[in-house]
Amino acid sequence: MACQTYFRPRKNEIYVLETYDNCTPYKIWLADLWECPDCGTQLIAGYGARAISERYMTNFKVHLKRVTHTIIGCPKALK
Ligand SMILES: [Zn+2]
Questions:
Q1: 62 within some domain
Q2: Tens digit of each residue's pLDDT (9 = 90 or more) over 11-43
Q3: Residues around ligand 1, an ion, CB closer than 5 A
Q4: For residue 12, what are the domain limits?
């Protein structure tokens, strides 16, 4: 990632989905989105110490609706 030093904060507290087994939703994390102003490459950093929700929790589906990014590219997990 050659342009990393130029990254700027783009958005705080984005919802990020962690998946397992072929993009099955697993955990949801709050993190910060950074973006390179030159090329638009995005970087997710600043994850919290623990997930804000996991798939067995009753609030999981509510948080899932707020997710905008996945940890490992699984766009099909975001319907
Ligand atoms: Zn760049």
A1: yes
A2: 999 999 999 988 999 999 999 999 998 888 888
A3: 3, 36, 38-39, 41
A4: 8-72
